[in-house]
Amino acid sequence: MNEAITHLKVPIEREENNVCLGPDGSVAHVTRVLRMISGRWKLPILFRLFADPSMRTSQLLRDIPGISQKMLTQHLRELENDGLVLKTDFQKQPPHVEYRLTDAGHGLLPVLMSVREFSRRHGDISGADLTP
User: Which SMART domains is this protein grouped with (predicted)?
Assistant: First the structure.
């Protein structure tokens, strides 16, 4: 067997290749999650929301240095559309809007902690810069 065929090394029962590579396969699911969290500011937003149950936009702006209002709004909207963040509008004047993680967003925490541990153990492999 060809050693370069990595999809056969995924720890799942041996079935057809579409289990891993098909439209509902492992690769498609992992790619979907990576797309959901890709973007310079999504991980800082998610980690801030992991730390606090709900936050207003102004709190997120204060706590995430370098992010602009436009990028915060854009990434929050994308995270909301992907079902990771819930926006609550209190319909008040002045506007009062809060963001919190959904159950799916909370479910992502163990995955991100595993990725963090992988980086801590194997971070010297790539020599990549850890700053965003």
Answer: HTH_ARSR (SM00418)
